[in-house]
Amino acid sequence: MHQISRGQLTWQDFALSQLGGPRTAAKLSLLDAAVPWDEILVPVRALPEYAKYIQDPSRPGQRPIDPKVMLRALMLAKWHNLSDPQLEEQLKDRISFRVFVGLSIGDRTPDETSFVIFRKRLREANLDKTIFDLILSHIARAGLLVKEGTIVDATIIEQSRGHDTGKKDDSGNKISTRDPEASFTKKNDRTYHGYKLHASTDLSGVVTGVMVSTAKDHDSNFIDELTKDETRAVIADSAYSDRQRREDLVARCVLPLIIFKRVRGQAKLCGWQKKFNRLVSRVRAIGEHPFGWMKRLMNFRSCRYRGLRRNAFDFVLTAAAYNVKRRVSLQSAG
């Protein structure tokens, strides 16, 4: 699959590579081939924490764990819905996981603190979007994108509402554990608290763009940015319905396939609008598939972190991990 991090195989490592579940190993091999690891590692290895050891291999001090191992581990955690403690445990326990990330039998297993530090380095360098874009470009080069239009949708990821600690700050205000950057919104008579993932999708179900906001921000605030490069059609539900937006798209020679909603003074939709909406709904449903997959198989229903930036980083990596899975599915269906 790939060389271990130490670069020198021993007979124990050879024996280890022959063990593990063959079905899991086969699935991981497909996922391995679907990620442009070498391209992603270029900006990661350029980070000061790694570059100084690359430039001076004899530099004293404890060397950080190979970023290739850490990157593979983070993607593995996404595909299998693992927390940092669970990821550490699985890397110690599962042979197929250990082989996948490139750990030999004698290599030190990264602990949960190592994952926290590594994620922080990537986040502070804004490499989440870079990783997403490199994976998307890899999919595009394979000819798997269907560039016949862009579907735009959004989903709410709930955050804990916290609780009153029973304490007060210096100003006498109650101290709560609630995430101060998350917000409330109402949908279908239910109140939600958290953040919102806005995504654009091609007609094959690959996520082509991601933006993150708090829950209260309206969906329509993000569609124009997500579709600014679209040249054929924009497909979206009634939350994005706006006469000016339709006119702007037509002026760009882009087909506005946006579901109509009643406007002020309109008792009900016209017959042709209802028919149009039914036809668009069939295509628009493709844009819901990534959210369904992420929530069902990656437990992407609630936030793992506090704060907009931390959660945005997590959302973007989740979308990138989904795209790798989607690529494998498209190639298998091929």
Keywords:
about 325 residues, alpha/beta, Nucleotidyltransferase, domain 5, 2 domains, six-stranded mixed sheet, two-stranded antiparallel sheet, 14 helices, globular, disordered N terminus
H/E series = HHHHHHHHHEEEEEEHEHEHHH
Estimated helix fraction: 40-55%
Point out poorly predicted stretches. 1-7
Shape: globular
Number of domains: 2
Structural class: alpha/beta
What radius of gyration results from the CA coordinates?
A: 23 Å
Q: How many strands?
A: 8
* Ends apart, CA distance between termini: 23 Å
Report the mean per-residue pLDDT as an integer. 91
How much of the polypeptide forms β-strand, as a percent range?
Answer: 5-15%
CATH class of the largest domain: Alpha Beta
Q: How many H/I helices? A: 14
Would you kindly provide a written description of the structure presented here, covering whatever features stand out?
- By secondary structure, the chain is an alpha/beta fold.
- Helices cover 47% and strands 15% of the residues.
- The chain has 2 domains: 11-125, no CATH class; 146-304, Nucleotidyltransferase, domain 5 (2-Layer Sandwich).
- The chain has helices spanning 11-17, 22-33, 37-45, 48-55, 67-80, 84-93, 95-101, 112-124, 127-141, 223-226, 243-251, 271-284, 289-297, 308-333; strands at 150-158, 164-168, 174-176, 183-187, 190-201, 207-214, 233-236, 255-258.
- Helix 3 (37-45) crosses helix 5 (67-80).
